[in-house]
Amino acid sequence: MSLFGEKQNIVVASPVEGIITHHGTPAAGAQVEQFLRWKDENGETRTVETDKSGHFLLPVREDEVRISPLSRFVIHQKITVRFQGEETVIWSLGTSHRELYGELGKKPEALHCELTGEPATMELEDGLLYTLCHWN
């Protein structure tokens, strides 16, 4: 066993698919930006745009990394929506899970994020999730 760890394939971020609304109506044309940090301080940003129904899909992000057995590996995820001149954080999470849908323990079905909704904090197995979204 190496102090630097063996290379392993990990899921940095599971796919996130859902609907974004603003005062209950689809946020068509909203910019959905996902910031991921796991390998360095700079991180990585991906952006998609919602369709006319407010639907968006951020695909899975995988990587091959070395994880030292002497340190704790943490992935930071933040999703921000830009719509009508406003910027709203809809998802912020730190997790050590590295498997598909490990962040929540299962695939979130029927994800819906209301930009004007009340934020919620969910206690997860290995951290806290701040979100404006709900799902089944």
UniProtKB/TrEMBL annotation:
Pfam families: DUF6795. This is DUF6795 domain-containing protein. Residues 16-117 form the DUF6795 domain. InterPro entries: DUF6795 (IPR046474). It comes from the Bacteria.
